[in-house]
UniProtKB/TrEMBL annotation:
Residues 230-502 form the YjeF C-terminal domain. This is Bifunctional NAD(P)H-hydrate repair enzyme. (6S)-NADPHX binds at residues 58-62, 133-139, 162, 265, 328, 379, 443. Keywords: ATP-binding, Isomerase, Kinase, Lyase, Metal-binding, Multifunctional enzyme, NAD, NADP, Nucleotide-binding, Potassium, Transferase. GO terms for molecular function: ADP-dependent NAD(P)H-hydrate dehydratase activity; ATP binding; kinase activity; metal ion binding; NAD(P)HX epimerase activity. Residues 9-220 form the YjeF N-terminal domain. It catalyses: (6S)-NADHX + ADP = AMP + phosphate + NADH + H(+); (6R)-NADPHX = (6S)-NADPHX; (6R)-NADHX = (6S)-NADHX; (6S)-NADPHX + ADP = AMP + phosphate + NADPH + H(+). It comes from Winogradskyella thalassocola.
């Protein structure tokens, strides 16, 4: 799914009114009606008090359309106008007149001077936040912040229209108290990037996209900087297998890593590469891991380093399709030096994680030795060592994009919504859960991505697909283990089920048993 920028949304609205020969007021009516339909389907006329807070721009206009439909359908509605400026949008004014024609009680005008002692919001009430939309470009004033805090203190269910008020689409929040904390956000046509970033995801517990009929040709042809990756996006990536295929068709992964006490990381990455579908997997490890690895994974071949305890001299005579580097590697001076020698002569595609990344961070000139489209998979601290500190998530993304462009690498920012960055393009993953915050989860991902590259997926496709499968496998596993008991090995065990899930059709709704007459 494409995530449209603020500017692209405005352009889409403009083109839609031109191509569909409708007014902007008609488009607002369409948006507000969709919100009403969503609420009406869930409330079925329930007389829960609904407090609709409208700003004086187009987001407020959407709220007025909603409030009018709620009133005409007999809901218990109180509408408020957050009146903090003299600048009212044309469509807001049109819908302000329309709601006055259907209700005996006109919207309550809230000036920026009064307090809120007379506004009573119960814990079982519903708040609709239609105060600011995507056009907000400065912090709300102090009076509005107090209103937002009243919402939060009430503990009432809060529904935001398009985006929680006070949240920007393209820059960081200056003050937490200046943003509405929404229980649910109904976002027009596509979700917003801020729903998926660590610092701003807390402002909406859940979100849903409402289709308001933006011009289809525009939606299809417009290229966006950000894409949301779900099953629909990864299915076209999947490569089916021919009947007469053999293991040589699916590549040879080498997992290069391990040190005394950390052979388990190589074990996990190797097993994941096999489960991803690689034809052959060889582990290059210190001698101390030979017997344990040969015993634990009979399908994996092993080459040992000269050293008993760490990687000291990378030397092999096979030709791997891809090499996963860094899991359990350690960062000793001898290991760092031998990795530098290896990078100077290596031509194979690389996936680099863990201590491989830490060694690159210690000597950044090594980054220039990486083959184009090398995949780097840092967690937040490893990323900070690579690109330096950042002040907010938007600065982080800009720095990662610049880093990717400079060194021609793919950077996977691991997190709740892992983001694959390829130059100026971002791919946000939708699978996964908090149970994945466990030792070895990243090692599994390194093996998965390596296994996909070995099978002929491009490094970018392998990263996007690998992250999706990794998260989906964990989502399947928590059904049996829960968040706390999930371990990395469980993720490997359900990779096969994650593949199978790609082709599962949604179950039809169950029919209610008929009552006997």
């Amino acid at each position: 799914m494409k995530l449209f920028s603020k500017e692209q949304i405005y352009e889409g609205d403009k083109l839609t009114t031109e191509r569909q020969n409708i007014s902007s007021t008609d488009l607002m009516e369409r948006a507000g009606t969709q919100i009403f339909n969503w609420m009406h389907a869930r409330m079925q006329g329930a007389q829960v008090p609904i407090h609709v807070f409208c700003g004086i721009g187009n987001n407020g206009g959407d709220g007025l359309v909603l409030a009018r439909h709620l009133v005409t359908h007999g809901y218990n509605v109180v509408t408020y106008i957050v009146n903090c400026s003299d600048k009212r949008s044309k469509d807001f004014l049109i819908n302000y007149d329309r709601i006055k024609s259907v209700t005996k009680k006109w919207p309550t005008m809230l000036s920026c001077k009064e307090d809120f002692t007379e506004i009573e919001i119960g814990v079982d009430d519903i708040i609709v936040d239609a105060i600011f939309g995507i056009g907000l470009n400065r912090p709300p004033n102090d009076w509005v912040k107090v209103l937002f805090q009243k919402f939060k203190a009430s503990k009432a269910f809060t529904l935001s229209i398009d985006i929680p008020s006070g949240l920007y689409t393209d820059k960081a929040v200056e003050e937490e108290n200046a943003v509405v904390y929404a229980g649910y956000t109904l976002s027009f046509q596509s979700p917003k990037l801020v729903f998926f970033l660590p610092e701003t995801e807390k402002y909406t517990v859940q979100w849903e996209v409402l289709d308001i009929g933006i011009d289809r040709d525009y939606l299809i042809k417009t290229e966006t900087e950000v894409e949301l990756i779900s099953k629909h996006e990864v299915l076209p990536i999947y490569k089916p297998r021919r009947k007469f295929a053999h293991k040589g068709d699916f590549g040879h992964v080498m997992i290069l890593g391990g040190s005394y006490g950390k052979i388990g990381a190589v074990n996990l990455a190797s097993r994941a590469a096999l489960s991803a579908g690689a034809g052959l997997v060889t582990a290059y490890i210190p001698k101390c891991g030979y017997h344990s690895l040969q015993t634990a994974i009979p399908e994996v071949m092993v080459i040992t380093d000269d050293s008993e305890t760490h990687i000291s001299n990378i030397n092999f005579n096979i030709e791997p399709t891809v090499i996963g580097v860094g899991v359990g590697l350690g960062t000793s001076a001898e290991t760092a030096k031998t990795l530098e020698v290896f990078l100077k002569k290596n031509k194979a595609p690389l996936v680099i994680d863990a201590d491989g990344l830490n060694i690159l961070s210690q000597k950044k000139s090594l980054l220039k030795l990486l083959p184009a489209q090398t995949v780097l998979t840092p967690h937040p601290k490893e990323l900070e060592r690579l690109i330096g500190k950042w002040s907010n998530d938007f600065e982080k993304l800009e720095k990662v994009k610049a880093f990717s462009e400079k060194y021609k690498v793919i950077v996977l920012i691991k997190g709740a919504h892992s983001i694959t960055v390829n130059k100026n393009k971002l791919y946000i993953n939708t699978t996964g859960n908090p149970g994945m915050a466990t030792a070895g989860s990243g090692d599994v991902l390194t093996g998965l991505i390596s296994g996909l590259i070995a099978q002929g997926y491009t490094p970018l496709a392998a990263t996007i697909f690998g992250v999706y499968l990794h998260g989906k496998s964990a989502d399947i596993s928590i059904e049996d283990y829960g968040y706390q008991s999930l371990i990395a090995s469980h993720i490997i065990e359900t990779i096969g089920e994650a593949y199978i899930d790609l082709f599962k059709q949604p179950e039809p709704p169950k029919e209610e048993p008929q009552q006997e007459k």
